[in-house]
Each structure stands twice: as structure tokens, then as C-alpha cells.
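For this section, I looked closely at a protein sequence along with its fold in C-alpha cell form, which I now present.
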Amino acid sequence: MAFEFKTCGIEGLWEIQPKVFGDARGYFMEAYSEKDFFQAGLTMRFVQDNQSASKGGVLRGLHWQTKHPQGKLVRALQGKVYDVAVDLRNDSPTFGKYHGIILDSEKQNMFYIPEGFAHGFYVLSDFAVFTYKCTDFYHPEDDAGLMWNDPKIGIDWNGIAAAAGVKDVSPLLSEKDSHHPAFDANRNYFNTKGVWIGGDWEEGKK
């Protein structure tokens, strides 16, 4: 098998390490193999690949889609990011909890985040190219998000950034990401299968 699959602290999340074959010329690796993923029990099908470039200090998130949720296989093609998934499955024992992984292009590690999670990342290097495979297409009408620094979730963005040697830990946010609503434990989001049960999402309401 060309990959090592590691479970994380929240059910459904996986850190995936490909085998990298390098020599003086460079390296070779398989970035994805349906055969190996299916053998590991990850039988999702991907329909869209996305890629972004961000300068250091950029924070993107926390995002998800409502009625067309996306599972995501994410990795850093260049640079280093702190990647975070927040469990929004109401009947999950880890509802409202998060798990973060540093994705490093030198390490080539990947993170699989299934449907039913919010996702975001913070760029720890001077520049990063980030890519992810998705299990559903982008539906702009289904865009939704959570406050990146919600104290109820408690993501330690600053601590991770400082530990990585980032001098200015103040994140650079888009206007949209600056105004997502807070997490509400009394609100419906997803069930444990990653199916949206929250009805019509009106950002900032309820």
C-alpha cells in the first residue's frame, strides 16, 4: 500500500501519509489511489479539485456547505498550514469539538475531513499553495460558516502559529470570514452521516 492511514481524535477524520520516494533528482509519490483508499475503508468518490494560494498569516474558514456537504481530502502543495476540522454532527459524541493537523509540503501529509464538519486553515509559512479534492461540487447558495475564533470551540490558532515561529500571529481574514456567526450547541447542523438537518441557513440568525 502506498499510504499510511491514521485515525484522529474524532471519528471520521484521517491523517494520511503517502510513501515518498526521493533521490538526488527529486521525488515521486502517489497523491491518491482509489484502490488503496477503498482498501482502508475510505470509499468516498471525488468530483472536484480545488486549489488556492495564500500569503503567510492568511486564515480561511471556518466553512462548510449545507444541503450539498463536501468531504475534503486536503494537503499543502507548497508551504505549511494549520488545518482544522470542527465536528458539526449533532448526535456525535464529539459535537462542537475540533481537531487540527499541521500540513507540510515537505512531509506531504494529507487530512481527510468527511461531510458534517466545518473546515479552515491558517498559513504558517511565508506562502502556501493548498489543494483539496471534494466529494460534491461547489454550491454557492449553500455556503455557510462559523466564527473562526469562537471561544466555545476554542481553536488555539495563536498558540500553534507562535510555536511554528510566526512572529505576527494576527490572522488575515476576508470580509466574509470576519462575520460568520458563533457556534450554537442548540442548533441543528448535520447528523452523524453528514446529512444536513439544519433547515434553511440564515447566517447570523438564531
